[in-house]
Amino acid sequence: MRVAFLAAECEPWAKTGGLADVVDALARALGQVGGAGRGGPLDGPVDVFLPRYRSVPVPASAVTRQLQVPDPRGSGVLTVGLVETETHGYRLRLVDHPPAFDREGLYGDAAGDYPDNAWRFGLFCRAALEALRTDPAPPDVLHLHDWHAAPAVLLRDGLLRSDRAIGAAAVLLTVHNLAYHGWPPAARVPDLGLGAGAVAPDADGLDLLAAGIERAELVNTVSPGFAAEARTPAYGMGLDEHLRAKGDRFFGILNGLDTDLWDPATDSALSAPYSRADRSGKASCRAALLTELGMDAGNSAPLLAMIGRLDPQKGFDLLSEAAPDLLELGFRLAVLGSGTADHVGPLRRLAAERGDRVALLERFDRDLARRLYAGADGFLMPSRFEPCGTGQMIALRYGTPPIVRATGGLRDTVVDAVTDPANGTGFWFEEPTAAALVQACDRFMDWFAPGAPRWEGLLDRGMAVDFDWRTRSAPAYLEAYRRTIEIRSLR
Ligand code: ADP
């Protein structure tokens, strides 16, 4: 089986959120459990196609060749660099076309999304498929990630349907975030390069994710819990009908966590390593973090951390609203957020007035994130919806009990300690309100007692959860690949 990923993000080269973590970790884990070269189902390492954005450092080992790619926007041909290297257990294949990708942001800048994203991602997909056409063996599976890769299945079924290498490939589309459909306005749809009449945009343009869902043999999202929710109008983001129509060809595979990259025993960003067997270093991490944040390291008041994109999805507004009550309950808060800061105004004021209790760090900071996962006493994820979520898994592995809204993947990965004390790993709340968040934090406070068996048991169970991609998630994807090939062969 030959598998090619098309994705807009991949850690450590280009990341705005969990998509990057998943693409990298899954590609790597597949190489390990798929037995590439060792008699397993994979013929070789997975290919990962990624745009070469300005921020992507080209690995020293990379080899570049030039491809001639039809310009999605017209009749001409563009010269596109294909920068390839085998690294991290997969084959990274960067699509390099500076006019499209050598820009400040991945998807846009301070002014918003780039208006020519249809062209940029149409070109990305076409270039990836052209690269695959030049390979000695055709791909069996195109594993498309989110809307940015959806044009590839439209090309397979349109302009390239008779192509020997691409026309027969089976498609698995993974929806990491159902909120982003990639919706070019009708006037921009021709820039995708799909060919005349391939798709019929309506007055609002083209819902690329919807089109991809329709065409892909199989569609999954990143947790069973969210797969169930996504079929309902409340969570389906306008696609619930499309997803219901897929029947059992739409399902959830819970994301794993890269347990080598996220390991408090080897994490070089931490001031002291620690592990499930010996958690003593966690206290040093806590003290160092509080000092770094300008807070009193000798004070036992619990520190709650929140990390994420400043997106309405993540519930920063709920935390902003809840913050005064949380201070009243005796908590301290550290918030690391990147992106557009519409929802953190009240937190900014609070951080300015109460710097001894509230820290707001408005940036993307990999190492600080690690120190927060390790040094905080609790981790907040008050998401309105959450296809899977990575932060809560990292927090569990770092012995920091998560307080989560019981939705999607958060419900699938965190066990509520209040309703299930023997198995609990964190704390749930149901309603997306500040009041419900405060109540959950109150329940956390009731449990919070470092050194006490009940508290230490909670941390221990969280650290013991096996999220390793190799255990369940990567084998589940291999099974999905087999199934999508079978469905494609029946066409
Ligand atoms: P999403 O994919 O919706 O953004 P996830 O919880 O799945 O959310 O993944 C978020 C990932 O990005 C986690 O690894 C988290 O630590 C990281 N992250 C998010 N925001 C920041 C930030 N401001 N600084 C550092 N890391 C961040």
Features:
single chain, 491 residues, alpha/beta, Rossmann fold, 2 domains, 34% helix, binds adenosine-5'-diphosphate
Describe what this molecule looks like in 3D.
- With 491 residues, this protein is an alpha/beta fold.
- It folds into two domains: 3-256 and 470-489, Glycogen Phosphorylase B (Rossmann fold); 280-467, 3-Layer(aba) Sandwich (Rossmann fold), CATH 3.40.50.
- It is 34% helix and 18% strand.
- The chain contains 16 helices and 17 strands.
- It has helices at 18-33, 98-101, 117-133, 151-157, 208-215, 224-230, 240-245, 281-292, 316-328, 345-353, 366-375, 391-397, 408-413, 434-447, 453-464, 473-489, and strands spanning 3-6, 47-51, 63-70, 77-87, 90-96, 108-109, 112-113, 141-145, 170-175, 218-221, 250-252, 303-309, 332-338, 358-362, 378-381, 402-405, 427-429.
- The strands form three sheets. Strands 3-4-5-2-1-8-9-10-11 form a nine-stranded mixed β-sheet.
- Strand 9 (170-175), helix 5 and strand 10 form a beta-alpha-beta unit.
- The longest helix has 17 residues, at 117-133.
- The model has no long low-confidence stretch (mean pLDDT 96).
- Bound molecules: adenosine-5'-diphosphate.
- Residues 17-19, 21, 307-309, 336-338, 364-366, 369, 389-391 line the site of adenosine-5'-diphosphate.
- The site of adenosine-5'-diphosphate has 17 residues, from helix 1, strand 12, strand 13 and helix 11.
